[in-house]
Amino acid sequence: MMREIILRTPLFPTEDVEKVRDAILNIFPDAEIDIVDDQLLGRAKSVERFAEILRDNKIRDAARSQILHGNQGGKAVFWLSKQVATVGKVNFTGKNVILGSIEVQFIDDDMDSLVNSIAPSTREPRENRI
After folding, report:
1. Higher confidence at residue 112 or residue 130?
2. Rounded to an integer, what distance in angstroms lies between the CA atom of residue 30 and that of residue 50?
């Protein structure tokens, strides 16, 4: 199984590079990060911390929806708030946010399995609802 997580965020002149780096590491602690052309670029493999944050903050269904919405057959793209990540939390944003966002790309041969492991649905199937 091939899995890769690609992380990208712009660096603004007013930002402290180490704080932005730490924001990414708060969510993906195994990320290897480089600075390339006014951007931080990272690669990670583990989704454990990300999944833990989603579970602890009870946002698995929202995360599931965001990831699946950005899924294009083996690759899912979504954006996280850079500012919220500095405190080790996850907030899904759009691509063009004023303070910048972290673009996250999940690349996996079995995206459904990955999403189910990170953000299993907490909702009952329709046929079980009253």
Report:
1. 112
2. 11
Go through the domains of the chain in sequence order and give each one's CATH number: 3-128 (3.30.1440.10)
Q: List the one residue out of 112, 113, 111, 85 whose CA is nearest residue 97.
A: 85
H or E element in which residue 103 lies:
strand 101-108
Q: What is the pLDDT of residue 129?
A: 44
Comparing CA positions, the residue from 35, 14, 13, 114 lying closest to residue 24 is 35
Rounded to whole angstroms, how far apart are CA atoms 7 and 105?
A: 6
Residue with tokens 């590491």: 25
Residue 71 per-residue DSSP state: B
Q: Which two tokens stand for residue 9?
A: 């965020």
Instruction: Judge contact between 75 and 54, C-beta under 8 A.
Output: no
